[in-house]
Task: structure prediction
Amino acid sequence: MTRRRPGPTSILLVLLLVLLLGVAAIGPAARASGSARAPRASTPLASASRGPCGRSPAPRRYTRVVWIVMENNGFGQIVGNSAAPFLNRLAAECGLATDYLAVAHPSLPNYLALTSGSTDGVTDDAEPAAHRLSVPNIFSQLGGRWKALEEAMPGPCDRVTSGQYAARHDPAVYYVDLGATCARDVVPLRYPLELSAPFTFITPDVCNDMHDCSVATGDAWLARTVGDIVASREYRSGRTALFIVWDESGSPGPNRVAAFVVAPSVPRGERVALPFTHYSLLATAEDLLGLARLGSARSARSMVAPFHL
Result:
């Protein structure tokens, strides 16, 4: 039997069919692998392709300092805790002070120590109306060149605890010398974060700061917030240093807390065992920003050289 050769039309139809089948097979795979991006919170440091730390030498000087103050967890409740995957990844990528002590219990004296170099005789968590402090502080040192970003604060410079906003975690509202700048510079936290000021003090609400909610909740909040910071124009400029610290351990005994140092010049995985305190953090910020040291920060060990800032 003689076989008939396929004509040009038949060959063309077969080729067209193969092409259509190939596109149909490739399309879904491409859509599945190419366009599904993980949420920023789950890959918070992805924006820094070389990682947020160990990427450049220290600049001539850092021009911006950012603090995030968390709540009531000791060193061992954070470092090595599987409920804090982001923070433990951050410890591997950036700097960690392993002998950092808070200075008091309860919360408020620690916030005052961090920002004025003294607990100012305060031993409780009373509202600003009970502690009208007229003392030098890092905010007054900077004039109007600072911001306090307060999550869940109902309005600017709110001096009354309400909902998930705790005035005792917002030290700026205790300093009466700030005057009208308080209404301008102590503002509700919004994303994307406003990081243009030389000094930014960030306070999560009482759930996200780990005070009322779990370590896992705070870790997820930090993943988003730190991701926002390291992806910012200010951080990518190479002149912003971020510090994350806990106000106190929340339990009797040694008041040891974790302190993370995130900056482009901090070597990856840097762990420093030198003793530091909240006064050290104030001294560090003042040194970086060219300010005179206040109170007990004058004699405190700075974190600048140990962390290559």
About this structure: DSSP finds nine helices and nine strands in the chain. The beta strands are 64-70, 95-101, 146-150, 186-188, 199-203, 240-246, 256-262, 270-272, 276-277. The mean pLDDT is 88.
